[in-house]
Specification:
88% helix, 0% strand
Length: 50
């Protein structure tokens, strides 16, 4: 199984057992965190150009 960088960080942080048990939760969290990060950068870019 191939993991993304953020998944690898989560696995290292929480441990492989936790990832196996809570994998879906971690993936949802990473998607939300990534989406929020991208959105905040877009908003910042828009506000600095006004």
């Amino acid at each position: 199984m191939v993991y993304t960088l953020k998944e690898q960080i989560a696995i290292n942080f929480f441990g492989s057992w936790y990832i196996q048990k809570k994998g879906a939760l971690i993936c949802d969290f990473l998607v939300i965190a990534t989406t929020n990060d991208v959105n905040s950068k877009i908003q910042y870019h828009e506000t600095t150009n006004n």
